[in-house]
């Protein structure tokens, strides 16, 4: 905006511009006259006229003598967005996911926009998926909705896709990804504790794609801090749920006989840690455990 006018006029111009933008008026829509504006905002006609001139210079409005003032351009079309993923549940334990989703919906609400929800089963039927995805400019996709059955349909989507909750780089789908980076946390671990004290590093991991993505970061960290490969042992569970991860971990470590005095257990899910804690709760010493979870 031009700065040659007094600050009061500039502030009023910015405020009124925002109010008009929120109304999303099409080009040619008539707005308040100078006199009506002056009355509404309790300012002098001269101040109101300066506000109109500021908005004219910005190509936001135009004035027609003896007819009034009008919006010059159509509002920018806001993208239509869809969401394909499980709806957040208060008792799910996914605090960060729930809060992020709440803030995202709050932002859309402030812009008077709605999010189109797409269920997993709707992505499995081509005709139904095409109907739900029609007219969308973008799709926020949670990784658990991405599999061999939904991938062909998602590849045909013409809009932009942002994937969250999938910790491996996707080569099969053109998209943007939000991938947690655990490197800084692992380096903090290295600065805080003497990792050379440990003779073995036991990595407890699931076999699904997210676990593989986190595992790759952990192994890169090991190489970066010069942990010898022969010190690293992988314990992999084929889990299909959080409860399964906890129960398998509990069962395995309840029967574990080896000395863990100089072993650091690195679990790639909190649920593995829960099982370990329960397995050793009656022991004289709890093993050292570092838990990493997305």
Computed CA radius of gyration, to the nearest angstrom? 29 Å
* CATH architecture verdict of the largest domain: 3-Layer(aba) Sandwich
The number of distinct β-strands equals 11
Side-by-side strand order of the widest sheet: 4-3-5-6-7
Segments where pLDDT lies below 50 for 5+ residues? 1-5
Which percent bin holds the helix content?
40-55%
From the helix content, strand content and strand pairing, which structural class follows?
Answer: alpha/beta
CATH topology of the largest domain: Rossmann fold
Question: Can you put this structure into words, describing what you see?
Answer:
Helix 7 (151-155) links the parallel strand 5 and strand 6 (160-164). The chain is of the alpha/beta class and 294 residues long. The strands form three sheets. A five-stranded parallel beta sheet has the order 4-3-5-6-7. Helix 1 crosses helix 3 and helix 2 (34-41) crosses helix 3. Residues 1-5 have low confidence and may be disordered. The protein folds into three domains: 7-71, Orthogonal Bundle (Arc Repressor Mutant, subunit A); 81-178, Response regulator (Rossmann fold), CATH 3.40.50; 183-291, Rossmann fold. The protein has helices spanning 7-23, 34-41, 45-57, 95-110, 120-124, 126-133, 151-155, 183-192, 209-224, 242-254, 270-279, and strands at 61-64, 68-71, 81-84, 115-118, 138-142, 160-164, 176-178, 200-206, 232-237, 263-267, 288-291. The chain is 41% helix and 17% strand.
């Amino acid at each position: 905006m031009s700065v040659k006018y007094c600050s009061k006029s500039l502030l009023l111009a910015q405020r009124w511009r925002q109010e008009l933008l929120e109304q999303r008026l099409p080009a040619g829509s008539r707005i308040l006259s100078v006199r009506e504006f002056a009355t509404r905002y309790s300012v002098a006609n001269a101040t109101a006229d300066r506000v109109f001139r500021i908005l004219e210079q910005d190509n936001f409005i135009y004035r027609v003598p003896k007819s009034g003032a009008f919006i010059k351009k159509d509002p920018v079309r806001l993208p239509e967005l869809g969401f394909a993923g499980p709806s957040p549940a208060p008792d799910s334990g996914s605090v960060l996911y729930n809060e992020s989703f709440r803030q995202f919906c709050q932002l859309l609400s402030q812009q008077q926009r709605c999010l189109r929800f797409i269920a997993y089963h709707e992505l499995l039927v081509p005709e139904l998926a095409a109907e739900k995805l029609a007219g969308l400019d973008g799709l926020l996709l949670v990784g658990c909705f991405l599999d061999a059955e939904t991938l062909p349909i998602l590849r045909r989507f013409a809009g932009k896709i942002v994937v969250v909750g999938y910790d491996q780089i996707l080569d099969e789908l053109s998209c943007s990804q939000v991938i947690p980076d655990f490197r800084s946390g692992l380096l903090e671990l290295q600065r805080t504790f003497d990792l050379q004290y440990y003779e073995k590093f036991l990595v407890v991991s699931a076999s699904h794609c997210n676990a593989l993505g986190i595992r790759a970061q952990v192994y890169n960290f090991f190489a970066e801090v010069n942990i010898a490969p022969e010190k690293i042992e992988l314990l992999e569970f084929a889990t299909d749920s959080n409860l399964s991860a906890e129960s398998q971990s509990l069962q395995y470590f309840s029967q574990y006989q080896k000395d863990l005095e100089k072993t650091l257990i690195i679990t790639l899910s909190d649920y593995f840690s829960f099982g370990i804690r329960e397995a050793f709760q009656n022991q004289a010493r709890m093993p050292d455990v570092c838990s990493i979870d997305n």
